[in-house]
Amino acid sequence: MSNINMIIEERPRLIGNFLVGRLLPFKDKKMVGPFIFLDHLGPVSLPAGENLDIGPHPHIGLSTLSYLLEGSVLHHDSLGNKITISPGQVNWMTAGRGIVHSERTPPELRTGSKNMHGLQIWVALPKELEEMDPAFSHTEEAELPQWEIEKVKYKLLAGTIMGHRSPVPVYSRLFLLEITCDERCLLDLSRQLYGECGIYILRGSIEAEGKTFGNKELLIINDIKSCGFTATAGTTVFFFGGEPFPEERHIYWNFVASDYALIEKAKNRWRQNEFSPIAGEDDNIPMPLENANIKYRPRA
């Protein structure tokens, strides 16, 4: 029996004026542990005058994790936080009962050409914390646990694994680990993983069970206690996952919840302008009548 339960390839999606590669949610795999959303942004070169502009939009029931490899993004939210995200930093925003934020090219970069490359991730909140107060955290790259074993470089972006803990304030048992191999190397984390696990290949390739898996593929692991791979030189992969929740999660637009009623409540609040606004920004993104990519049917 194969240890790789599923292979998910990136699907193109338009976010604002920006094309991304969608990995999660997938029709046959909505979540990996508490991770419910994974987009790969770029890599793309934007000419002078073309910028990332995702206007104010709301979230509930989740934490967002933004991680850049190239470029810069200006984060601005309804809590008053306004900060530029740079490569290697972890931007962690917890929506709880509701938050609004925008994501844009910083003013100093808008008139010139620029590169964009990174990951946008959503982590669902435990049921008992879905309506917690919104919160925000920004972690510098130097604050993240980083180590090297037998020429394999590890960086822990969030959660706990291999005896290390990231300072990012997560709310469930999870891990998000970036691994870089400059030379051909063995990746065997079978004794360190827990819960569910996905492996996203950002660049390069990994080999397992006589097969080669390439960049922009997400592998869903069937048995984490038999999780051994060989990575080719120049490979970067992300191991992520953790303990799954006992309750199902529903997703509509930017809303995540264990109960449809919470989503309906959030939809009405956004229509009626009841979310706290972002100071100085009023170009709110209207809620779609129907999400073309991810749908749910409310119970009768």
TrEMBL record:
PANTHER family: PIRIN, PIRIN-RELATED. Residues 177-275 form the Pirin C-terminal domain. Fe cation binds at H57, H59, H101, E103. Keywords: Iron, Metal-binding. InterPro entries: Pirin, Pirin_C_dom, Pirin_N_dom, RmlC-like_jellyroll, RmlC_Cupin_sf. Pfam families: Pirin (PF02678), Pirin_C (PF05726). It comes from Mucilaginibacter gilvus. It comes from the Bacteria. The keyword Iron applies. Belongs to the pirin family. This is Pirin family protein. The lineage of its organism: Bacteria, Pseudomonadati, Bacteroidota, Sphingobacteriia, Sphingobacteriales. GO terms for molecular function: metal ion binding. SUPFAM superfamilies: RmlC-like cupins (SSF51182). Binds 1 Fe cation per subunit. The keyword Nucleotide-binding does not apply. Residues 26-123 form the Pirin N-terminal domain. Its cofactor is Fe cation.
